[in-house]
């Protein structure tokens, strides 16, 4: 094996939870408390190399370097939008690329992370699934996205205040890595991002919804619903053929009962497909009495897909129809339009350019 291959096979140091790092250290003849020092270097001082970790012995720094990767992402593109949104295209060690977006809100800076290279869910409107799934991301590759963005914000003394797992990929299809990621960024010795400031979204992998409910983390939870009945949902999202709407709603009720938390439903408005008042009425019936919130997303145009935008008046009428029936609803504010900030768009463009050349 040459050096490059060896380098690639090392796990990312960012994949380890604090207790796992302690276990590794004690198994390697070091003191467990060194783990806190290493976390401090990684997440508070945001070191670029093991070499910098000056309160560790040289031997130990060398040992860490031999066993772990610290750099897992290389910034290929960083684009800033007029509204302050920053889109990053990161290259992974094996040449694949992923995207991460920093969104600026009045309440703080929010990072949208990717969990997989591509996606195998096949939603008919989504750019991320074009080309299928290439591989899962390691927990550390997800953590490193937040660290990278935080480092960019360090320049202006700002902080990442919230994280949404709504980038490329289906987080519940890479469940264990996603969970480690959550625990690492949430840990107070890690990035210390509060559970209530983290949101995970799934297309509806039902067994994992039950598992997630049982984790009992105070994380915000969203489901990509997009349709008020099972026939229409199956047309838009083939996953509904395996995990049907009725069963999905049962899992949702379980989650709400178990955690006491409100759930969010994402509902993309696709012109003439699911955006009529009848759909709003049906949706209100489906969600009646549930502790929930609906987030309406005007469709993001994807050149490979032929969905069209719902006219503004119709979006407001749809919102009103839900409100009148007692459903909590908001319309998603759009950001970063000028920089392909919608999921998978920058990567899709980069992929196409790769295919051309
Ligand atoms: N795979 C997870 C995480 C992605 S979150 C999930 O499906 O929930 C990104 C959200 O944007 C999802 O609700 C997704 O369905 C939605 N989305 C994807 N492509 C879109 C498009 N072209 N227009 C509007 N919303 C889209």
Automatic annotation (TrEMBL):
Q: Which GO terms describe its molecular function?
A: 4 iron, 4 sulfur cluster binding; metal ion binding; rRNA (adenine(2503)-C2-)-methyltransferase activity; rRNA binding; tRNA (adenine(37)-C2)-methyltransferase activity; tRNA binding
What span is annotated as the signal peptide, if there is one? none
Enzyme class, one word?
Answer: transferase
Task: Write out the catalysed reaction.
Answer: adenosine(2503) in 23S rRNA + 2 reduced [2Fe-2S]-[ferredoxin] + 2 S-adenosyl-L-methionine = 2-methyladenosine(2503) in 23S rRNA + 5'-deoxyadenosine + L-methionine + 2 oxidized [2Fe-2S]-[ferredoxin] + S-adenosyl-L-homocysteine; adenosine(37) in tRNA + 2 reduced [2Fe-2S]-[ferredoxin] + 2 S-adenosyl-L-methionine = 2-methyladenosine(37) in tRNA + 5'-deoxyadenosine + L-methionine + 2 oxidized [2Fe-2S]-[ferredoxin] + S-adenosyl-L-homocysteine
What keywords were assigned to this record?
A: 4Fe-4S, Cytoplasm, Disulfide bond, Iron, Iron-sulfur, Metal-binding, Methyltransferase, rRNA processing, S-adenosyl-L-methionine, Transferase, tRNA processing
GO cellular component terms? cytoplasm
Q: Which residues bind S-adenosyl-L-methionine?
A: 169-170, 201, 224-226, 300
Q: Where in the cell is it found?
A: Cytoplasm
Q: Which PROSITE patterns does the entry link to? A: RADICAL_SAM (PS51918)
Q: Where is the Radical SAM core domain?
A: 105-338
Binding positions ([4Fe-4S] cluster)? 119, 123, 126
Which GO biological process entries does UniProt record here?
rRNA base methylation; tRNA methylation
**Cofactor(s) in the UniProt record:** [4Fe-4S] cluster
Q: Name one Pfam family in it.
A: RlmN_N
Task: Note the superkingdom of the native organism.
Answer: Bacteria
This enzyme's EC code(s) = 2.1.1.192
What CDD domains has UniProt attached to this entry?
A: Radical_SAM
Identify the InterPro entries for this entry. Aldolase_TIM (IPR013785), Methyltransferase_A (IPR040072), RlmN_N (IPR048641), RNA_MTrfase_RlmN (IPR027492), rRNA_lsu_MTrfase_RlmN/Cfr (IPR004383), rSAM (IPR007197), rSAM_sf (IPR058240)
HAMAP family linked to this entry: RNA_methyltr_RlmN
Q: Any extra detail in the entry?
A: Reaction proceeds by a ping-pong mechanism involving intermediate methylation of a conserved cysteine residue.
Q: What family does the database annotate?
A: Belongs to the radical SAM superfamily. RlmN family.
| Main function | Specifically methylates position 2 of adenine 2503 in 23S rRNA and position 2 of adenine 37 in tRNAs.
Q: PANTHER family given for it? A: 23S RRNA METHYLTRANSFERASE, RADICAL SAM CORE DOMAIN-CONTAINING PROTEIN
Name it.
Probable dual-specificity RNA methyltransferase RlmN
The organism encoding this protein is: Neobacillus piezotolerans
């Amino acid at each position: 094996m040459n050096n490059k291959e060896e380098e690639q096979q090392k796990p990312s140091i960012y994949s380890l939870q604090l207790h796992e790092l302690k276990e590794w250290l004690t198994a390697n003849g070091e003191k467990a408390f060194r783990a806190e020092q290493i976390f401090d270097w990684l997440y508070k001082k945001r070191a670029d190399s093991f070499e910098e970790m000056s309160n560790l012995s040289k031997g130990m720094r060398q040992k860490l370097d031999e066993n772990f990767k610290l750099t897992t992402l290389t910034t290929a593109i960083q684009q800033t939008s007029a509204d302050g949104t920053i889109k990053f295209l990161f290259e992974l060690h094996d040449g694949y690329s992923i995207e991460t977006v920093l969104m600026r809100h009045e309440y703080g800076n929010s990072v949208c992370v990717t969990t997989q290279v591509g996606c195998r869910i096949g939603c008919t409107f989504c750019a991320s699934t074009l080309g299928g799934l290439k591989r899962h991301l390691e927990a550390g590759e997800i953590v490193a996205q937040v660290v990278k963005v935080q480092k960019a914000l360090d320049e202006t003394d700002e902080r990442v205040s919230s994280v949404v797992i709504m980038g490329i990929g289906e987080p519940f299809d890479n469940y264990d890595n996603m969970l480690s990621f959550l625990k690492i960024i949430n840990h107070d010795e890690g990035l210390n991002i509060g559970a209530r400031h983290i949101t995970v979204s799934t297309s509806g992998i039902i067994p994992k919804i039950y598992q997630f409910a049982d984790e009992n983390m105070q994380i915000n939870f969203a489901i990509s619903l997009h349709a008020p009945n099972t026939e229409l949902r199956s047309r838009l999202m083939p996953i509904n053929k395996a995990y049907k709407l009725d069963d999905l709603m049962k899992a949702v009720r379980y989650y709400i009962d178990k955690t006491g938390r409100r759930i969010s439903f994402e509902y993309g408005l696709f012109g003439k497909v699911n955006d009529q008042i009848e759909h709003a009425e049906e949706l209100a019936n489906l969600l009646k009495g549930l502790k929930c919130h609906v987030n309406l997303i005007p469709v993001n145009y994807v050149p490979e897909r032929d969905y069209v935008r719902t006219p503004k008046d119709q979006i407001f009428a749809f919102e009103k129809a839900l409100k009148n029936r007692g459903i909590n609803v908001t319309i998603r504010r759009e950001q970063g339009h000028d920089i392909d900030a919608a999921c998978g768009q920058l990567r899709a463009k980069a992929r196409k350019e790769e295919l051309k050349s």
